[in-house]
Amino acid sequence: MAINPDAEIDHEGPVTPYRQLAEILMARIARGDWAEGRPIASENRLVQEYGLARSTVRRAIAVLVEEQVAWTVQGRGTYVGQPPEEA
Questions:
Q1: I need a labelling partner for 38 at 20 to 30 A (CA). Which of 46, 52, 74, 83 fits?
Q2: pLDDT (tens digit per residue) in 23-34
Q3: What 8-state DSSP symbol labels residue 19?
């Protein structure tokens, strides 16, 4: 089932908020909100936008990385796609 990229987090639903956010972020990436190799919204921005705890946002981002949808650089952000090859 495809999730609406504009969906809101359902705190009462059966799916955990971090998983809901991960699905929403993947839908936004698929929609083209963030291009390949470009950063997604910052943790702070996602905390504010979705009204979630920072730890919840971090877990959602970890799902994106685990599912190879994004990669992170400590202190710089999370980027869409796979990390560039090391030279």
A1: 52
A2: 999 999 999 999
A3: H
